[in-house]
Specification:
The chain is of the alpha+beta class and 572 residues long. The chain has 17 helices and 19 strands. Among the domains are: 239 residues, GROEL, domain 1, CATH 1.10.560; 118 residues, GroEL (3-Layer(bba) Sandwich). 47% of the residues lie in helices and 17% in strands. Helix 8 packs across helix 13. Bound molecules: adenosine-5'-triphosphate and magnesium ion.
């Protein structure tokens, strides 16, 4: 068969819609409405694509009453009203990436959009959706294989690399000076709480408490080497500031002395049948309260945090007695904060009151009640307790400051950077950003696809093109010409020069090894896998089943002629 005849046969097969890879089965015809739904997915990705990268545009979000500015994928998409459930599916996937990785959600959505664009072209040529879906998954696996092979191993405790990873994740959302300051305190908090005992350098991010306070500038953000407890000092007679604090964490209801009241629940059981006994009881009870305060004082405690245990609180008289002894106390401290306080100060949580000892106490250089401003509250001036200057704090607090919208955005930026930094500590393999990694993978995938001998090759090529869209969009978003960039990138890779990407700040092509743009391998890997999986889900759907007159937004996974369901194919 000569080349001409071969091409005619292939084109004929494509036109007829026969799919040789699926054993000759006919592809399901795609109704126009269904293609419209894929268009919705593409529209969402196009909306986000202009916000990709450090010079990506911000979006103004408004519901008519409130206005916010953001360029975080999940925040933007939460406000987007979509008509088609498949587009809703993409939004949900983006949110789950945002929750799971905290980074890379825009890249994931844009990549999914590009994959869907490519798939649409192939569908028009008569490809079976499943062929495309499976080829995409195959391509993503190969891409991940290449990714693992090109990733660079770094030292997890090398502060320089950690700072670069953090700054890349912040993606210029803060200006340069603020960016350096934030990167520094984020690295400090991560290295402070990282589990250096395990070989894996795991970071439990719940040990870094993130609080957001309106007012001041981003630069007023502070890293507290300890915990900020969102409770005031419980009693006005107590001191508001203690230096060289010796901290007791009490996680028990104040129980009576075991030898006096062996049943422990004496208050429920006591029976008073004579008024004289009442007085006796009061005295005894008061003496007990004093003994409790004496016990607390005897072990050397000068700061007490009492865990929230139902509505149980510190007895009012105990509060007053503690105040007299110069002990600062807070109540209703939530469990998470109690754990953090333990990690930060070295205190052990006491559950058996009369058995506690000096060894259970923790240390902080200073414990102080400070006024903070929360404009959203009816009474905006509230007081929190700052436990600071802990010796080897294994839990810390970042108090982010800024004006209304910018404080919220700064907090989100810090969250992204913390997630990216912790991913790097867990697995210190990195790749070079600015689209360099996507360009390398794209060219490698194309080379690999050339060796394929069937139509999967075309789908893998589309996957490679979708990857290349990332550096091209980064270039476009910083004002470079996409076509020139593509040609330049092609030339670089053709001449064997790897790691070329877009230096957005200098607006040019650059070997990204020489830049400081670094991304953790594990985040990139999940982003590519998720984009391929999202495209696969979209391509595998051929019917939408809508519940009749239902307010339920849930779409049933599969329904077989169930009463009450109306089958609508791609209807909006
Ligand atoms: N200074 C820089 N120069 C070039 N590229 C950069 C720079 N900083 C970040 N990037 C690149 O920008 C891209 C990430 O952009 P962005 O943070 O807007 O999207 P995302 O991480 O996918 O989404 P999100 O942060 O909303 O979850 C990555 O490809 C990264 O390598
Ligand atoms: Mg990002």
């Amino acid at each position: 068969m000569n080349e001409h005849t071969l091409r005619a046969v292939v084109q004929g097969a494509l036109r007829d819609g026969k799919d040789n890879l699926r054993g000759g089965e006919k592809p399901k015809e795609l109704k126009n409405e269904w293609k419209d739904c894929l268009d919705d997915v593409i529209k969402i990705s196009d909306t986000l694509s202009t916000s990709l990268g450090p010079l990506g545009a911000e979006k103004i979000l408004t519901d008519g009453k409130h206005v916010a500015v953001s360029n975080f994928a999940a925040t933007i998409l939460r406000k987007v009203r979509v008509t088609h459930p498949v587009a809703q599916l993409l939004i949900e996937m983006c949110e789950s990436i945002d929750k799971e990785l905290g980074e890379g959600s825009k890249t994931m959505v844009v990549l999914t959009g590009e994959l869907v664009k490519g798939a649409k072209e192939l569908l028009d040529q008569g490809f079976h959706p499943l062929t495309i879906a499976h080829s995409y998954i195959e391509a993503s696996r190969k891409a991940v294989e290449f990714l693992d092979s090109i990733a660079v191993n770094e030292d997890p405790l090398d502060r320089g690399t950690l700072l670069r990873v953090i700054k890349t994740a912040m993606s210029q959302r803060l200006d340069d000076e603020d960016g350096d300051y934030f990167a520094d305190i984020i690295a400090e908090s991560l290295l402070g709480v990282v589990d250096q005992a395990s070989a894996k350098y795991d970071v439990d991010l719940s040990n870094i408490k993130l609080l957001c306070l309106e007012g001041g500038a981003a630069r007023d953000t502070r890293l507290v080497h300890g915990v900020v407890v969102e409770q005031p000092v419980v009693n006005g007679f107590m001191p508001k500031r203690i230096e060289n604090a010796r901290i007791l964490l009490l996680s028990a209801k104040a129980p009576p002395e075991p030898e006096k009241f062996p049943n422990d629940d004496f208050i429920n059981r006591i029976e008073i049948d004579d008024p004289k006994k009442m007085e006796e009881f009061r005295k005894e009870y008061d003496a007990l309260l004093w003994r409790m305060v004496n016990k607390i004082e005897s072990i050397g405690c000068n700061v007490l945090f009492h865990e929230m245990l139902g509505t149980h609180s510190i007895h009012e008289r105990v509060q007053a007695y503690l105040g007299k002894r110069g002990i600062l106390a807070a109540r209703f401290v939530d469990e998470e904060d109690m754990k953090r306080l333990g990690r930060a100060t070295g205190a052990k949580r006491v559950t058996a009151f009369w058995h506690m000892s000096e060894e259970d106490l923790g240390y902080a250089k200073i414990v102080e009640e400070r006024e903070v401003f929360k404009p959203e509250l009816t009474d905006p001036r509230i007081r929190w307790i700052f436990v600071d200057g802990c010796r080897d704090p294994r839990a810390m607090t970042l108090v982010v400051k800024g004006l209304k919208t910018s404080a919220a955005n700064t907090k989100r930026t810090v969250e992204h950077a913390l997630r990216s930094g912790s991913a790097f500590l867990r697995d210190p393999r990195i790749v070079y950003g600015g689209g360099a990694v996507e360009a390398v993978l794209s060219f490698r995938l194309k080379e690999w696809a050339r060796g394929m001998e069937d139509r999967r090759q075309m789908a893998v090529m589309k996957f490679a093109e979708a990857l290349l869209a990332i550096p091209l969009l980064l270039a476009k978003n910083c004002g470079m010409n996409s076509l020139d960039t593509m040609i330049a990138l092609n030339n670089r890779y053709a001449s064997g020069e790897n790691w070329y990407g877009i230096d957005c700040l200098r607006r040019g092509l650059r070997n990204m090894e020489a830049s400081s743009v670094r991304e953790p391998l594990i985040i990139k890997r999940r982003v590519y896998e998720s984009a391929a999986a999202a495209a696969m889900v979209m391509l595998r759907i051929d019917r939408m089943l809508k519940r009749k007159e239902s307010r339920d937004r849930e779409i049933p996974e599969s329904v077989t002629k169930t009463e009450g369901y109306k089958q609508t194919v791609g209807k909006k």
